[in-house]
Sequence to fold (116 residues):
Amino acid sequence: MKKASTDGTSFFDDVYAVVRMIPKGRVTSYGAIAQYLGTKLSARMVGWAMNAAHNVHPTVPAHRVVNRNGMLTGKHHFATPTLMEELLRKEKIEVKDEKVVNFQEKFWDPSRELSL
DNA sequence: AGCCTGACTTTGT
DNA sequence: GACAAAGCCAGGC
Fold:
C-alpha cells in the first residue's frame, strides 16, 4: 500500500470506513464487507486491507471482522493473539474456541444495515 | 513487468 | 462430513 488510487482513496479506505461503521457489540465477515464494496468476489482483499489497517488511524476495529463462520481467523495478526478475543468480550461478544458465539445474531451486514 | 502471497469463500470429490 | 483445489484482486518484491 504504497500509493492510493488517483482519486486519493483506495478500496482500503472503504474497508476501514465500513469496519468503523460496525456498531459496537456487532461483528461482520470479510465477505459481507467485500460484497458491500463490490469486490464480493475477493473477500481476501478485505482481509488484506485489514493487514494494512495496523498502520491506519483512527484505529480500525478489525476485531469485529471475522470470517464467514464467525471464526477469529485474523487474531494472529493482532498485537497479541488474545487481543481480538479480549476486545470482542468487552463488546459483550462471547468467544468460544476462537469462534463468535451466536455469530449469526451478532452478524452485521453493511449491505443490509446501511441500505435500510 | 512478472511472480508470489494473503486475516476468504465456494464448490467438488 | 472432511479435505483439496480454484477463483478472486491488489500490494510487495
In short: Chain A has a mean pLDDT of 86. Chain A has six helices and four strands. The helical segments of chain A are 11-21, 30-37, 43-53, 83-90, 103-106, 110-113. The beta strands of chain A are 28-29, 65-66, 95-96, 99-100.
